[in-house]
Design a protein that fits this description.
- The N terminus is likely disordered.
- Helix content is 44%, strand content 14%.
- It contains twelve helices and twelve strands.
- Strands 11-10-9-8-7-6-5-12 form an eight-stranded parallel beta sheet. Strands 1-4 form a two-stranded antiparallel sheet. A two-stranded antiparallel ribbon has the order 2-3.
- It is of the alpha/beta class.
- The longest helix has 18 residues.
- It has one domain: Aldolase class I (TIM Barrel, Alpha-Beta Barrel).
- The chain is globular, with a radius of gyration of 19 Å.
- Pfam families: DeoC.
- InterPro entries: Aldolase_TIM (IPR013785), DeoC (IPR011343), DeoC/FbaB/LacD_aldolase (IPR002915).
- GO terms for molecular function: deoxyribose-phosphate aldolase activity.
- Belongs to the DeoC/FbaB aldolase family. DeoC type 2 subfamily.
């Protein structure tokens, strides 16, 4: 079933300091709203049971980024979150989470807490969550987080520029941020709930990938709506097309609003059916969902024992 329609045409070059700048082709297919929503809903009806369900839930845990991004964050809270990421459950067969995500000031705390493990430390930057700061401040924010030890940077795009059609400005800022990241991987947050249409989400995805994003991410988790299956499907389709055109695999991270094990399995189905098994790894797919882990652990206990554990058996962070 084809989701995308005809190409919308290339963006023109822009003049900067008296010279013409040639950008990559930002054109992107239009999105059929009805078809993408129907396909996303249809893939959500797949029934996954027994050993396949258990394997899927464990895979989901290994893909989770546990996040604390509050004004009241403290070293103690970050350390507690890191311990939960390192060992989500006392059972030895439950994997560690993929990463913890914190503000730059607390990167050092997180790095010490996960030292020697496979858990990565991510940091938000570029004036998260608004993105409304000067480029110099944003890049300084990124460099500081990387110097403090961040393995991954989660940046936010300038939604005002995107909505105004200033695609070159969006591209330039992402490219500059990627350069400032150095060895760290860059996740580009589109804040899809503010972009308004699937077409803008599709174009923003393309711009981010052309500018060097290692991951594209739906949301900051600070506004509603955040991640949804149709939006995620649009972004996955963009990733697929980019990989086919360039040979470069870009990761995907839906974030915000994913709270149940059933939803997590739905997203894994979306990934498998759109991108294939190669993307079913934490290197190319993540969940940004701070409240998801406990529900997945409860579902795993139900599969093992036939009964739910009380929520009191899990930390509330």
């Amino acid at each position: 079933m084809a989701i995308f329609g005809n190409d919308s045409g290339a963006a023109p070059g822009v003049v900067r300091q008296g010279r013409e700048v040639t950008y990559p082709d930002f054109s992107s297919p239009t999105v059929d709203k009805v078809m993408v929503e129907e396909r996303a809903a249809g893939l959500g009806k797949r029934s996954i049971k027994g050993p396949a369900k258990v394997a899927g839930l464990k895979l989901a845990i290994s893909m989770m980024d546990l996040t604390t991004l509050e004004g009241k964050d403290s070293p103690g809270k970050v350390e507690q979150l890191c311990q939960k990421a390192l060992r989500p459950h006392e059972r030895a067969d439950i994997p560690s989470c993929a990463a913890v995500c914190v503000y730059p000031k607390l990167v050092c705390v997180a790095k010490r807490a996960v030292s020697g493990s496979t858990v990565k430390v991510a940091s938000v930057a570029t004036a998260f969550p608004s993105g409304l700061s000067t480029l110099a401040v944003k890049l300084a924010d990124v460099r500081q987080a990387v110097e403090l030890g961040a393995d991954e940077i989660d940046m936010v795009i300038d939604r005002g520029a995107m909505l105004s059609g200033e695609y070159g400005a969006v591209y330039d800022e992402i490219a500059a941020t990627k350069e400032a990241c150095g060895h760290a991987h860059l996740k580009v947050i589109l804040e899809t709930g503010e972009l308004g249409t699937y077409d803008r989400v599709r174009k923003a995805s393309r711009i981010a990938m052309l500018a060097g994003a290692d991951f594209i991410k739906t949301s900051t988790g600070k506004i509603t709506p955040a991640a949804t299956p149709p939006v995620t499907l649009v972004m996955l389709e963009a990733i697929r097309d980019h990989a086919q055109a360039t040979g470069r695999r870009v990761g995907m991270k839906p974030a915000g609003g994913i709270r149940t094990a059933k939803q997590a399995l739905h997203y894994l189905v979306l990934v498998k059916e759109t991108l294939g098994d190669a993307w079913l790894t934490s290197d190319l797919f993540r969940f940004g969902a701070s409240t998801l882990l406990n529900d997945v652990l409860m579902q795993l206990e139900k599969e093992r024992t036939g009964a739910y554990q009380s929520g009191d058996h899990f930390s509330k962070d």
